[in-house]
Design goal:
Blueprint: H1 9-40, H2 52-57, H3 62-82, H4 84-103, H5 109-132
Length: 134
Amino acid sequence: METNTPSTPAVSDSAARQAYAILKLGFIAAPILTGLDKFTNLLVDWTQYLPSLVTNLSPLSPAHFMHVVGLIEIVAGIGVALKPRIFAYVVAGWLAGIILNLLLIPGYFDVALRDFGLLLGALALARLSTIYGK
């Protein structure tokens, strides 16, 4: 009688499926929750993450600009729930934009590095979605 060991395909597939589920749930919840918080600022005053370059070029007030950002994040989270193979890449691209934005603000390089970790997670979700996101 054969048992599943860590090297057998059944166990590997199960671990990959669990990783997919964890990443999918995380990339549904995180964008939606942070998007909603752009309207309430309960977690943080999100306008502090806008470099002066952005605020000077935008016709919107910083608060209204962050509301638009929040709506995009909510849509991205819902998109991951419905079409993770596509929207995981959208979230990864969005995170790349956030990283570039944060690199324009001295003192937020640590947050940019954390967002780079999230970007890698979104790319992992996109790859796993080719197998499990059907």
